[in-house]
Amino acid sequence: MNSNVVISKRQLERYPMYLKFLIFIKKNGVVNISSSIIAREMKCSEEQVRKDFQAISKNAGKCHLGRNVDEMIRDLKDFLGYNKTAEAVLIGVGNLGKALLHYSGFASYGLKILAAFDVKEDIVGTNINGTPVYDISDLKDQIALLNVKTAILVTPASAAQETVDLLVQSGITAIWNFVSIHLQVPDNIIIENVDLAASLAKLTYQHNKIC
Amino acid sequence: MNSNVVISKRQLERYPMYLKFLIFIKKNGVVNISSSIIAREMKCSEEQVRKDFQAISKNAGKCHLGRNVDEMIRDLKDFLGYNKTAEAVLIGVGNLGKALLHYSGFASYGLKILAAFDVKEDIVGTNINGTPVYDISDLKDQIALLNVKTAILVTPASAAQETVDLLVQSGITAIWNFVSIHLQVPDNIIIENVDLAASLAKLTYQHNKIC
DNA sequence: TAGATTGTTAATCGATTAACAATC
DNA sequence: TAGATTGTTAATCGATTAACAATC
Fold this sequence. Notes:
The structure is a homodimer.
Chain A: H1 9-27, E1 32-33, H2 35-42, H3 46-56, E2 67-68, H4 69-80, E3 86-91, H5 95-102, H6 105-108, E4 111-118, E5 127-128, E6 131-135, H7 139-146, E7 150-153, H8 157-169, E8 174-177, E9 190-193, H9 196-210
Parallel strand pairs in A: 3-4, 3-7, 4-6, 7-8, 8-9
Antiparallel strand pairs in A: 1-2, 5-6
Helix pairs in contact in A: 1-4, 2-3
Chain A binds a DNA duplex through residues 8, 10-11, 34-36, 44-48, 50-51, 54, 60-67.
């Protein structure tokens, strides 16, 4: 892995796609694979595939052979941090919050949700899929206690901004935001928005072009 | 709106962000706004803001004034199709599927889920937030009956590929995919992946850079 | 060997930003 | 008017693709 190479956001979006494809192809018994085949299957250029893997791979590809699928999977998982645990808290145990707490994929991404928070009395004190649910008033103390820096924001829109403010005060530095409103966040806080509206817009726009 | 302008995917991703920001700023009583202020708040360039709105706006901006917030919101909603209903079916009424059926945001995006499908006997025949749940064996007939072209895929990973095949056979031409595996789809089918792994990778990569 | 495949360097393409005239 | 803001045209930047030598 060449750690002084800069990885662009577009590249970052591609790595999980490569990983999915390689897991798929490995199931089919493929041991080595060339960039040209990956490119054809994933509808991109082979030069891009080669450059993307050069940036994160421990070994060079082999002429005539391509790369080893297992090594590629290992390098992708290492780069994406799936082999070390990232800890987070989750705020807002509504329908989506519950679904995320039950989502088994996070474990394979190395993401562990240590605690969840809500205001609803009937849910505080329960345990969802191994994660305890605390009252929002315990947020600051728990974040300090758990020494966690990442929060998953899944509150109702009406509570999102005040929750962000509270998270920032509590020492959270990275927010994975599932709430679909404009949020004001200090410059030193990383926020990544899961924007379903944007995803749907891309689907609809392309669909309307062909219909 | 200049309909022969090509809108790039990156632009499409920005429009919902503008909309959220404008809804936020409208709540604060702002009537007109300049591209420079939008750019500062949204951390992009003012030229980009102007070009993005030129591409979708019915009226030109006004010197000295900027643009009218209400008009921008209207034009964004028109462009994004929020004022006309897009119909879809949803496949897989697990935790995430249920959360999506309860998600109130879709209504504001003009998305209406007409029917849901699953294999689990205890859930087939029920009604979730107004949407009836049918057995997967009724999928083809219902899609024909409802004349729907878009499907939301939220099945377990193990059932995703066979479900895609079934959807394609049933005449679905657009798939909004929430399942995190590599799927094989004919070239004439539009598929848009909601890739939580990619989103999380972006958050983590940026966070690790500053920590 | 021949040919498939790599990695690197150069060229191209597309998107973003800069510059600036037009305008109210 | 002066100055703020627009829209357009040109320049820049970054990412992607093409070309090609190296290699097993």
